Amino acid sequence: MPVNTFITPNWVSTDVAMFWDNNIKLLRLADMTYGSEWKNKPDGAQIGFTVQQRIPQRFRVKRGQALQQQPILNQTVPISLTDQLQVSMGWSSADSAVTVEEVQSRYDKPAGAALANECDSFFGQQIYKSIYFSIGAPGVAITDNESWTDGVAILRAFGVPDELLAVTDAKQQSKLVSSNLALFNPGSQISSIFKKGLFGMGALGVDEWAWDSNMPVHTTGSFTASTPAVAGASQTGSTLAIDGLGTYAFKEGDVFTIDAVYGVNPISYVNTTILQQFVVTADVSGTSTATLSISPSIIADTNSQLQTVNALPANDAAITFVGATGTVGATMTATASKQNIIANPAAFAWVSADLPVNLAGAVAGRTPGAKTDKVSIRYVDQYNIQTDQMPRRMDCLVGAAPVLPYFALRAWS
Questions:
Q1: Which of 126, 163, 257, 372 is 20 to 30 A from 30 in CA distance terms?
Q2: Phi (first) and psi of residue 153, to 5 degrees
Q3: Beta strands in 49-137 (DSSP E)
Q4: For 7, which DSSP code?
């Protein structure tokens, strides 16, 4: 006589987590070792939804025998649990006796894939606007290899470690592969390339390429005929006053450069001779003049451990926005563009906290080994005696944050 396969909360949540892991793509770009405060807290302790994570210390090398002590700068970034994602369903008590294969195909696999896609989409939306390095032009897919290798060169110039991963949207993947069939499809790698959305390894200076249909879309800001320029010399910090504008509406995530303001390597502090790109960090609209909130901060102090640029912007220095027609008498039209991303995994953090399983009147379980898993998924069911139905839900409490945004680059398409 066949033996029933019993569906337990831990079994289902583990199965869903497996399918989740098999479907994530963009999340490959994240460091998932953060968030231990939520997983390793003492029993009964509550630490809130936000923790502060330290980022690596920066030092300047000094010359000479005399001691030249420099301060320890314990910089931190906030990482928050912001979203509870769920997949809910229900079935009757009679359906509970279905076979393992049916449960996997009918419930677990679709639930895991749905959660993975939502997590990928959520992650992309949370992090892309913090990335200030970029290549390409809004609304135009990149078709030449040099643009990609130039992007990798930017990351190398700013001291980003060797491991680089890239995730593109499907259209950009098509452009890449069609012009580089041999490069992106070597026979020795075919078995690996077609797993988990991979389509290339070790190409164009990037260790691993993957495609994802959930890449974020950025719609640029806009302005009428303008000659954007710096309004006032020697501005520093995370805001920049500009003028020469017509009617404008800048969007968080817009990128621009300032004439003669070059980025410095954050380790050696050598001038990279690459114009520093800045990203707008808050929407702003108006006419004629604007004060932009920006990242990174403009710091030109050659004694500072946080120096970002070689020089402060000059008054009337020309400003060029990505997506604008130029710098003099230019316009910019709001343009939607998929955001492809190349990054070292240290650029971003992904966190997931264990939701409680001691729930009155319900049977609940959680992914075993959740202290080390990439996501903690809780499964809960509860019997309704009135309808003989058993509503079920699978939840994960997650968050994402940029940690070292200069470890990443956006490719417009």
A1: 257
A2: -60, -35
A3: 50-54, 76-80, 83-92, 134-135
A4: -
pLDDT digits (tens, 9 = 90+) for 57-83: 888 888 898 988 888 888 888 888 889
Q: Which of 397, 392, 327, 316 is nearest to 356 (CA)?
A: 397
> What are the structure tokens assigned to 129, written together?
């606007």
323 contacts 332 by C-beta, under 8 angstroms = yes
Name 278's bridge partners.
256
Kindly give, in sequence order, each residue whose CB lies less than 8 Å from that of residue 408, ignoring residues fewer than 6 positions away. Answer: 29, 127, 131, 133, 155, 341, 342, 343, 344, 347, 348, 402
Report the SS3 class of residue 404. coil
Residue 291, both tokens: 């004060």
Distance in angstroms (rounded) separating the CA atoms of residues 343 and 102: 39
Q: pTM for the complete prediction? A: 0.86
Strand, helix or coil for residue 121: helix
Q: Which residue has the tokens 């990798």?
A: 152
Residue 346 near residue 31 (C-beta atoms within 8 A): yes
Residues 362-377, buried b or exposed e (16+ Cβ, 10 A)? eebbbbeebeebbbbb
